[in-house]
UniProtKB/TrEMBL annotation:
A GO term, aspect molecular function: dioxygenase activity
InterPro entries for the chain: NTF2-like_dom_sf (IPR032710), Rng_hydr_dOase-bsu (IPR000391)
Keyword tags: Dioxygenase, Oxidoreductase
Family according to the record: Belongs to the bacterial ring-hydroxylating dioxygenase beta subunit family.
CDD domains linked: ring_hydroxylating_dioxygenases_beta (cd00667)
SUPFAM superfamilies reported for this sequence: NTF2-like (SSF54427)
Pfam family, one: Ring_hydroxyl_B
Full protein name: Ring-hydroxylating dioxygenase subunit beta
Top-level taxon in the UniProt lineage: Bacteria
GO biological process: 3-phenylpropionate catabolic process
Family matches, as Gene3D superfamilies: 3.10.450.50
């Protein structure tokens, strides 16, 4: 059996690094360390969750993900993410008083072909959120990310969140996915 090629070893190392980045990001979000999480995103971040519509199979393979200029659950920049983080830290943020308890599962991490500086990464997610005594929500789907090295460290430059659900039944989406 021959030794793995240098290209394969480099790809495996990059995949491992991307996985560890996503797992660390999930831990920051689960522990509601939003300010530290915000440091993981680039200044030009596009953080977007388009609306998903269920359709008959004869129309676009059974579902439709809204285009960039159509409806979205959120469509954030670094500035709007910063405002959301600040709002979560405000004592009057009633949707998070008391704070939610959350657990995220990140799986099926696939690293695409690396460009000059951008690294495409696809992953699946499951988020369970519990609040008060009986309020429970779950979100699941696919994330299409672009990671970028900034000063030698991976940072999140783009995130497109495609929910598996076409109707989100939660009262609000106060967290990050």
């Amino acid at each position: 059996m021959s030794a793995p090629s240098q290209d394969l070893l480099a790809r495996m190392a990059l995949t491992f690094e991307a996985q560890q980045f996503l797992y660390a990001e999930a831990r920051l979000l689960d522990t509601q360390n939003y300010k530290a999480w915000l440091e993981l995103v680039t200044d030009d971040i596009h953080y977007w969750a388009p609306v998903v519509e269920s359709r008959e199979r004869r129309h676009r393979a059974g579902h439709y993900v809204a285009a960039a200029d159509e409806s979205a659950y959120f469509d954030d920049t670094r500035a709007t993410l910063g405002m959301r983080v600040a709002r979560l830290g405000f004592p009057g943020a009633w949707a998070e008083v008391p704070p939610s308890r959350m657990t995220r599962l990140i799986s099926n991490v696939e690293v695409g072909e690396q460009g000059a500086e951008d690294i495409p990464v696809r992953s699946c997610f499951y988020l369970f959120r519990s609040r008060l005594e009986t309020e429970e929500d779950s979100y699941h789907g696919v994330r299409e990310d672009v990671l970028r090295r900034v000063d030698g460290e991976l940072r999140l430059a783009r995130r497109k969140i495609i929910f598996a659900q076409s109707v989100l039944t939660a009262r609000s989406i106060t967290t990050f996915l």
